[in-house]
UniProtKB/TrEMBL annotation:
GO terms for molecular function: ATP binding. Coiled coil: none annotated. It comes from Bosea massiliensis. Pfam families: ABC_tran (PF00005). This is ABC transporter ATP-binding protein. Residues 6-247 form the ABC transporter domain. Keywords: ATP-binding, Nucleotide-binding, Transport.
Amino acid sequence: MSEIILEARDLELRFGGVLAANGASLSVRANERIAIIGPNGAGKTTFINLCTGYLKPQSGRVIFAGQDVTGLSPRTITRRGIGRSFQIPQLFTDNTVMENLLLALSAREGTWSPFLRLDRHPKREEMIALLDSVGLRDTAERPVRELPEGMRKLIDIAVALALDPKLIFMDEPTSGVSSHEKFQVMDTLTRALDARATTAIFVEHDMDVVARYASRVAVWSGGRIALEGTPDEILNHPEVRETVIGVGV
Ligand SMILES: Nc1ncnc2c1ncn2[C@@H]1O[C@H](COP(=O)(O)OP(=O)(O)OP(=O)(O)O)[C@@H](O)[C@H]1O
């Protein structure tokens, strides 16, 4: 069995009267594909924010690759090897796709300056190959604002992959992707993750996507995992079918 790459232990975070993380714990092995599912407000995004440094837990620990990364800044955590994409893509919409990738790289490497010549950046070819691997080669020179929502989500993921993470959190990678394109997008994405041996944890509301692409499913409820298991076990669980998927038993 592969080693544990991420361990979240008993994370707690309260917003006023709301316990958005209420003893949230999860162990992740290298190369797993974990889907996080659960109703709105269950604390799925909060969990991602706690593991990636966007929020600091009031108690609990996050251990990544054997090191305690609890409460470190998002930038430091990114450098340690945890990437993320967002529910709403965080891109510079007036810049081209290539510029977004190169700006992210330069920021990570600490090489950004107002005089940076993105058109002569030494990593352009590498970024073209990355875009190719997620099926977006043709978008390289297009401004992000011209692209549809589904494509922006993929670009946001490509930006995270450009920083070469060992593990990536993806918040709803297929929302905004049309239903007839979602499998194609996920196939491409999975191939890119496999090729880089990137472990992935993704929040997903589409159960067809969960069934097809997750190796394990964690059901979130009230700020913690209520249930976990294989897609088959979870998607056929009577309580999950009723409360999360919304189909009676
Ligand atoms: N910055 C914040 N300030 C106050 N309350 C917050 C904040 N962020 C989240 N919450 C609350 O914490 C709880 C968990 O929110 P979170 O966004 O993590 O849920 P979620 O499972 O990701 O929901 P969704 O599926 O709708 O994205 C909710 O009750 C939410 O209103």
